[in-house]
Amino acid sequence: MSTPNDMLRNELLDRRSRLEIVQKNSMDMSQIQDLLASVDHALGHMDKGDYGLCDVCHEPIEKDRLLADPLARLCLAHLTPGQQHDLEEDLQLAAQIQKEMLPKPLVEHAGWVIAHHYAPAGLVSGDYCDVLTSSEDTVSFMLGDVSGKGLAASMLMGQLHAMLRTLTALGLPLTQAVERASRGFCESTLPTHFATLVCGRAHRSGTVELCNAGHHPALLVQGDSIIPLEATGLPIGLFCNEKFLEKSVRLQPGNSLVLFTDGLTEMEDESGRPYGTERLIELVRNNSSAAPQVMVRTILDDWTKFRGPGFKVDDMTLMAIRRKGDSSSRQ
Hints:
Elements lengths: L3 H21 L4 H20 L14 H6 L12 H21 L4 E4 L2 E8 L7 E9 L2 E9 L3 H20 L4 H15 L6 E9 L3 E7 L4 E5 L2 E5 L17 E4 L5 E5 L1 H4 L11 H10 L5 H16 L8 E8 L8
Antiparallel strand pairs: 1-2, 2-11, 3-4, 4-5, 5-6, 6-9, 7-8, 7-10, 10-11
Helix pairs in contact: 1-2, 4-5, 5-6
């Protein structure tokens, strides 16, 4: 079985081959020679078995930084002021791009209302959240979680966002869109990368098609009845030829779906007790008639109160989707 270092070695060897090709046709040799020297330095340390250690403190470099840049030679604590400034600028830019990719906080279309809350643990997030109004009679929604954290995970999230937006715009059946996204994700990332994902397509008729690739169950809210809709496949990107199934449910006016990432249910309080799915389900049941934006705000308030003064340890995203038509909904 391949190890992360084997995969990084293959990536470095591929970079070296590409640099050698460019070297033959380039007039400016200095930059290419510097890059080749950096690749050879990394490969040499792989051969010695001490790859991935900081040149200064000899402690392991952060894993997500190595995945994003296999040539990294310093841990975050020992970056030069100039390097720290460049990294901060990259993170700020990535955060701005990610913010602009998010859907509007409240979307109303085709008889549906969708609200969400998106909270990165740091400047950027590996969570994925999107809503697309592709026709007059349907609205598509996606929520997922890319493996890893930090800048590397946010870059992968951006890649997934672009692929699914393009595939959804083509009007493909839901399972085909997810299968193609999974194949593209698998072929363009390291085998250690994958993503859990819920994709849905809600029709004006009340029918919702759901494809759940290894993500937490969506919660179907029908009055006091809360039904977890389990995953229909493995996470995307694990295998390049994955197949996925879809599940169809019909929501009556006033029924809802609640989607979330593990940053919600795995958050621990000061005693180490997780928020948990059972607490979430009970809260949703007690607020089953709430409008989506109220449902999201209620869950967020309870989650914030539960964790107390502790810090967020993971990205957290929450989405509520409701079929319109129930005049008793609390606004």
